[in-house]
Amino acid sequence: MRKSFTLALAAAALAFGGFAARADNLQDGAKAFQAGQYNRALALWRPMATQGNPVAQNNLGIMYLDGKGVPQNMSEAVRYVSLSAAASSSLGQNNLGGLYRDGKGVPRDFRRAMQWFSASASQGNSAGMYNMGLMYELGQGIKADPFRAYMWYALAADQGNMPNAVAHRNALWSRMTPAAQNQARELSVACKRNSYKGCA
Fold it and tell me: Of the four, 23, 84, 106, 181, which is 20 to 30 A from 13 by CA?
């Protein structure tokens, strides 16, 4: 099974609850991006990113990372994703963790990756949860722990938008004894009950 971290691009501005025009620009940019109209996405997101919108900063960082609509530029990708993460965007935190995990534009650092994934997961971000599962399963930045790996995969899978989490959760489950399954399930329930805080 291929193990890779998940980067997230966002369209919605639900966390900001603010101006409809901002939400429309984020969503219109996402539609343009998905349609391959990268210049239009860039025109919509760049002004918002410059004004400090963390979702737009994250999205612009992904554009620089992949070289879509802009020349590929790792330092700009890291800069924008870092701005997003520093503004407590769970998307930016997850993506910055991914950059540290893979050593893209920054030195590879599993501990820093784990810190950013943990910050993202504690906000309920399913990609951050999935990536926490990978870190625990592979023992990257932390001692390998199949119970915690299962917990994070299960929490990500519960959100319904992470098919890789389902596959990893099921694979771990199949290798556990019934007693271990109960322990892993209890960890998941407790973490969810605590709104994903203090689960790492």
Answer: 106
